[in-house]
Amino acid sequence: MVQKHNLGTFDYIIICLSLIISAVIGIAAKYYGGKQKTAREYLLAGKNMAKFPVIFSIVVTLVSAFSILAVPVEVYRFGIGIYICIFMIPIGMFLASVVLIPVYFQCGVSTVTEFLEMRYGNIIRYMVSVVFLIQMMSFIAIALYGAVLALSAVTNLSLEMSIVSLGAVCALYCSVGGLKAVLWADVFQATLMFICVFSIYTTGIRDGGGISKIYQQAKEGQRLVLFDFKWDLTRRYGFWVCLVHGTITGFAMYGTNQIQVQRMLSLSTIDRAKSTLRISTIPVMLTYLTCSSVGLLLYSIYFNCDPILNKEQTGLKKYDQIIPAYVVNTFHSIPGMTGLCIAGIFSASLSTISSALNSAATVTVIDFIKPFYRKGNISDFKIILMTKIISLIYGAIGIGLSFLFLKATSLQHLLQVLLSAPQGVIFGVFLIGVLTRKVSDKSISVAVFLSYMIVAWLSIGSLTSKYSQTPLPLSASSCPYLGTNSSVVTPSCLNEANCTASMISTKPPPKEIFFLYKISFMWHNVLGLFLTLFFSAIAVLITGWRNNVVPIDSKCLSPVTKLWMKKTTENKENNILSGFETSEQTHQL
After folding, report:
1. Residues 568-583, buried b or exposed e (16+ Cβ, 10 A)?
2. Which of 22, 197, 426, 473 is the least buried, fewest Cβ under 10 Å from its Cβ?
3. Which residues contact 298 (CB under 8 A, 6 or more apart)?
């Protein structure tokens, strides 16, 4: 079994420096360009942020340690089908810039849930706020767990100390510097993250035998199938599910999620926000593609010697540990290089955790604490103070929750179930709110409750059923046997029959598993959106489809909706005038 590598002095120095610099950025942001004495300055960076740090933050906020550790492994095991999802995200982002982002500026809100109260009422605002906070706490915990657990498995890093250190640093600079600190820290952390990824590429292409060989082996291993139009709900990354899921993810995450919308609201005008989000589409797509394509390098490096099938020698138990293992095995002989890559992985988590903490604290203060004061009359000092305290509290909660996920088998599955699945329901609420005048507070609340219960049941069932989609063929036929000095194949592959059996890394699932638990988790947010639209339509039909609950000139309606209604009204007026002229002519005859 391969032993854990001991990090050197330079490695620890680099890791500690990366954490210290992030904390210093948070403290500096408090005093740079104003002392953040108002809630506007603290929560929205004074609404005068430059485009550059906002674009960087948009790119790296959700491109976290999952993208470095988990997504490449998905390509390694299931091929490049996930690329379709990545290609569709920019389309969703563009739609968000047209349909949703202008509405928040029209309404002058600080949080997306403030808009929900203006459009619907208190009930739906609090329902969505609770779901969002649950999402963010889960997100923080998974981000901490993912980076630290994978690294602690192959290095002498302490699991407990790493989790506490990351969580504490994030909570510190979030609470001290507010959104401005988060945005500028993201720029620094993105730099470290990209250094880590490109270092892996530099050595990975060499170890994989060159680009030509990497391509050939990926093709031989069926990893390059992009357009497979077969209709199979259980296929993890089928073409159709990725097509729809990617569009919804881009639309919802960048148009209704407080993390991303808060970045848009830190800009001064609607036009600046729209252009910033549109500019971000290309780097977001390229970053996702760059990270996920590491999986093709891994497949070539471990071609016919899968490290999990060969766990007797590698000591690895989860596929999420493959990249950390490769990093430390490759760079441990270069002083400081392992520490730099670990700092990059930690930075990817820091950017995600800090953004989640900042957004969760903002929603808590604005949605749950401020309304307790008479007519919302609360001083800026109290808002800032409470937001700082709550950021620290949420940081502590995230640290505690991270230990609950120690037995998770797939970070990607866990992330999709806890974060992406509820997003479909929430997205439906916003889409209905900005595109129609029909649905009332009570109607949408019933629709959300029913939809969320169904999606939650399906998501939890898919996790607890322990069903795992069968990956593409994996082999350990060429692994060296470490029991002697000579290189022979692993004991499981000493004969052809055993070799064939080892090609598949997961056993076929039991037949008694409920079918809906076996469908790809990529369908969950699609189902959530569909159910919300369906139940809302039923509620409108019951309560009266001719009733309009908001006026035609409401700030809560999207400019797209107003344009459509204007054209519809003009057409009706033209038809009326045309009919009137026709009747006059008939009367004269």
Report:
1. eeeeeeeeeeeeeeee
2. 473
3. 72, 73, 76, 204, 322, 323, 326
3-class secondary structure, 155: strand
> Pick the residue with more confidence: 410 or 390?
390
Q: Which residues of 428-445 are buried (b: 16+ CB within 10 A; e: fewer)?
A: bbbbbbbbbbbbbbebbb
End-to-end alpha carbon distance in the chain: 101
Pair 399, 357: CB distance under 8 Å? no
Please report, as a single letter, which amino acid is at residue 268: S
Q: What is the mean pLDDT of the chain?
A: 80
When pLDDT is averaged across residues 61-90 and rounded to a whole number, the result is 86
- Sign of the CA dihedral with 49 first, then 53, 55, and 57 last: negative
> CA-CA-CA-CA torsion for 9, 12, 16, 21, nearest 10 degrees?
70
For tokens 């430059």, the residue is: 50
Residues 270 and 98: beta-carbon distance below 8 Å: no
Two structure tokens written together for 508: 């076929």
Please tell me the predicted confidence (pLDDT) of residue 417.
Answer: 63
pLDDT tens for 217-258 read 999 999 998 888 888 888 888 899 999 999 999 999 899 988
pLDDT at 391: 81
Written as one string, the DSSP assignment of 272-335 is HHHHHHHHHHHHHHHHHHHHHTHHHHHHHHTTT--TTTTHHHH---SGGGHHHHHHHHHHTTST
DSSP 405: G
Distance separating alpha carbons of residues 63 and 549, to the nearest angstrom: 39
Strand, coil or helix: what is 96?
helix
Q: What is the pLDDT of residues 460-476, one digit of tens each?
A: 888 777 777 888 888 88
Q: Supply the DSSP symbol for 5.
A: B
Residue tagged 């139009």 (tokens):
229
Q: How far is CA 37 from the centre of its chain?
A: 32
CA 435 – CA 224 distance, rounded (Å): 39
Secondary element (H or E) of residue 580: helix 559-588
Place of tokens 């950390």: 324
Please state the φ and ψ torsions of residue 308, each to the nearest 5 degrees. Answer: -85, -40
Give yes or no for a contact between 88 and 246, defined as CB atoms under 8 angstroms apart: yes
Query: What CA–CA distance (Å, rounded) separates 152 from 362?
Result: 33
Reduced to 3 states (helix: H, G, I; strand: E, B; else coil), residue 267 is coil
* Burial class of residue 382, CB neighbours in 10 A (0-12, 13-18, 19+): middle
* pLDDT tens, residue by residue, 477-502: 878 754 433 333 333 333 333 343 33
What percent helix, strand, coil does the chain show, rounded to 5?
75, 0, 25
As a whole-number percent, the residues of the chain with pLDDT over 90 amount to 26
CA angle 367, 45, 165 (to 5 degrees): 80
Burial-class residue 87 by CB neighbours within 10 Å (0-12, 13-18, 19+): middle
Q: Answer for the pair 473, 222: CB distance below 8 angstroms, yes or no.
A: yes
Q: Does position 103 have pLDDT exceeding 90, yes or no?
A: yes
Give the pair of three-digit tokens for residue 437.
């005048």
